[in-house]
């Protein structure tokens, strides 16, 4: 590679890094103002135009990042990061489990007021659908890595859907009842019922 080509590649990498940094800052700015407005007036009272007015972000820039305000909320959940994994024993078997319940309940507890604001109106169904999709993708990928998911068999997808359905159902009950138990208690209860994050047991998932 010539010196000129290396310089051009370096300049391109620097430009890409700057663009990524600007994009990240824009997303964080929009999320921050979304949270503030949600606490002030409730999620349903927020419009995209209000977000643009409060942040100074151009409409074209907003739609370059997000489809709508629901998509912005989903970005907030994604910004929490991916659930961690841990090694544990279930019925004497050593397993790598996805701590998705810890991830969901703990993040919600830290932002309880925001979650209540987001799930207090008719828009909650759209947000919940997005959240369920995030969880399904995470759990399915974990099952696949652990050999618990096979595309050609229904059992793997059924396990994913049942696990995520149980998690979101319990989580939604918790939110709607104003967090009657701690996130730690919710996580421990859910994991004990669902075999610590790998349901059904590994010995029953292969055909």
UniProtKB/TrEMBL annotation:
DNA bind region = 47-66
Q: Where is the HTH tetR-type domain?
A: 24-84
Lineage: superkingdom: Bacteria
* Xref: SUPFAM superfamilies: Homeodomain-like
Molecular-function GO terms, alphabetical:
DNA binding
This protein's UniProt keywords: DNA-binding
- The signal sequence is none
A Pfam family name for this chain?
TetR_N
In Swiss-Prot or TrEMBL terms, this protein is called: TetR family transcriptional regulator
Q: Which organism is it from?
A: Pseudomonas laurylsulfativorans
């Amino acid at each position: 590679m010539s010196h000129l080509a290396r310089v051009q590649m370096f300049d391109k990498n620097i430009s890409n890094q700057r663009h990524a940094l600007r994009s990240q800052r824009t997303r964080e700015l929009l999320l921050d103002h979304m949270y503030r407005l949600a606490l002030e007036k409730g999620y349903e009272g927020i419009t995209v135009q209000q977000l643009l007015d409060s942040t100074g972000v151009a409409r074209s820039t907003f739609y370059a990042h997000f489809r709508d305000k629901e998509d912005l909320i989903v970005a907030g959940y994604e910004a929490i990061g991916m659930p961690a994994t841990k090694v544990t024993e279930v019925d004497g078997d050593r397993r790598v489990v996805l701590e998705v319940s810890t991830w969901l309940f703990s993040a919600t507890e830290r932002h309880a007021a925001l979650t209540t604001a987001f799930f207090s109106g008719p828009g909650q169904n759209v947000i919940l659908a997005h959240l369920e999709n995030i969880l399904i993708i995470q759990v399915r990928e974990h099952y696949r890595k652990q050999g618990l998911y096979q595309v050609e068999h229904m059992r793997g997808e059924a396990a994913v859907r049942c696990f995520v359905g149980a998690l979101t159902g319990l989580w939604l009950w918790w939110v709607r009842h104003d967090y009657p138990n701690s996130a730690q208690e919710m996580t421990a209860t859910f994991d004990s019922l669902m075999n610590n994050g790998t349901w059904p047991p590994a010995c029953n998932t292969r055909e």
